[in-house]
Structures are given as structure tokens and as C-alpha cells.
Amino acid sequence: MxxxxxxxxxxLLNEVVDLAGAITDPTVPHDxxxxxxxxxxxxxxxxxxTAWSVLGRLVSAGDxxxxxxxxxxxxxxxxxxxxxxxxxxxxxxxxxxxxxxAEHATNGYGIFGLASxxxxxxxxxxxLLQNGGNExxxxxxxxxxxxxxxxxxxxxxxxxxx
Length: 162
Known about the structure:
- By secondary structure, this protein is mostly beta strands.
- It has strands at residues 4-10, 14-16, 27-29, 35-41, 50-57, 61-65, 69-70, 76-77, 83-91, 99-103, 117-120, 125-129, 143-147, 153-161.
- A hairpin with a 5-residue loop joins strand 7 (69-70) and strand 8.
- It starts with a strand and ends with a strand.
């Protein structure tokens, strides 16, 4: 059985317009571009051959070294040569402050492309599809820096491929 990743992103927007009773349903949906759906398979373009996720808890800061992960079975997982095809991060709504996810100053991995960091507020989330556009993980591009102020928690999932 081949690895597979399915990504769904949808934003439902409804605007209620005031037309003084001119129409029965004054709701205008804004949904022409608010859904993105993509499916990646092992050996496909872009490729998805590895999945990784973590439930993280910060004391104040931490790093994720993409060359020194642990897979679902507890084995070492080194992503050298791989690209992050998609990333999803969700911050717990009980967090007291935002968490910053950034390219580390030393051997940093530019997970967000040209943007070097993103701050995610309590209860906030981000889903980013890179479609093979990210750099490959290497000895000089491997660390995601995570910074908070206290005991914040987050969930992170990655789709990884060649």
C-alpha cells in the first residue's frame, strides 16, 4: 500500500445584504475560490512518501531538527534530501500567547518560503501547501525554531516527499 496525503482547505463566507425586503434570501455566498483540494501519492508529482506529526509542548522555546525526528514506530527519521510538501499547525485555544514558528538562525529550514516566520495565536491554525516548492532538507537547512512565552501547546503535521 502506498502512502497518500489528502489536503482539504475550505473557508465558508456568507454576506447578508440589506436590500430592504427586495429579495427573500439576502445571503450572498463568497465561495468561488474558498476551497482547495489536493491529493498526493507516493511517486506522484509532487511526491508524498513520508508523514510526520507531533503534539508539542513548549516551556519557552524549542527546535525541530528535520534530520533527527522519530517516526510513528519510534525509529529515527532523517528527512535529508526531502521537501515538505504541506504543513499544518494548530495552536491550542488555552495558550496564553501566540507561538512563533521560524527559520532558525543557524541551519534554518525556510518552511514558509520567503516569509521567515509566522506567529499563530491561541486557537489559530495554518495549512500551507507548498507543492514541491520548498527547498530540500540538508545539513544547512534543517531546523524550525519554535518560540513562545510559557507552557503553550500545538499540533503539527507534515507531508514530506522528494
